[in-house]
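To fix ideas, we quote verbatim a fold written out as tokens:
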Amino acid sequence: MSDVLDDPGTVDDNAPDASGRRVAPLVVGAIAVLMVGLFVVFVGAVGGGDDGGATADSPLIGRPAPEATGTLSDGTAFDLSRRKGSWVVLNFFDPTCVPCIREHPELVAFSDDQATLGTDGAELYSVITRGEQDEIEEFFADNGGEWPAIYSEADEFPVAFGVAQVPETWIVDPSGVVQLRLISEVTAEQLNSILRQYREQYR
């Protein structure tokens, strides 16, 4: 008989627990499932390919748009809730943001495309997140674009939509319900296609 006894202080990580199951494999499996889930969420948020901005989730999707107000370049008050009856596209813009500058020609093309639809065309607004009015007007004069720009005190408009980084583009339907949030740069083709699909579903 051996005089050497097992050390009672040594614990076997693979030993069955009180319920007869092995704990370590279960923990590893749970972590793996969690990691896969996080990866899927990440891909869904940042994906989108070369065709335009990626869609991103928001608590506002499917809900009435927040009560967002501001002032237009001519001093006229802007109230988003009063735009019901029209498709509204909000593009959050900073004239020093390189992706915003790169995206601008696409917005010009989109605005021109929507203008050909008459009353069925969407209303496009640039929500200014940074820059003085003179700077914004100079940018539009140099780069095209005749749609209105919205200015808000203390960034109240961007805060209402939870926008921290630009560019972002949001679509609000004629009922005043937020339908879509697009992060990063968008294209005219992408926005036209999305609105075409929404109009068909909305009828």
Q: What stands out?
A: The chain has two domains: 7-46, 52-202. Strands lie at 54-55, 69-72, 77-79, 88-93, 123-128, 149-151, 168-172, 178-183. Residues 1-11, 15-21, 23-50 have pLDDT under 50 and may be disordered. The CA atoms of residues 53 and 114 lie 19 Å apart.
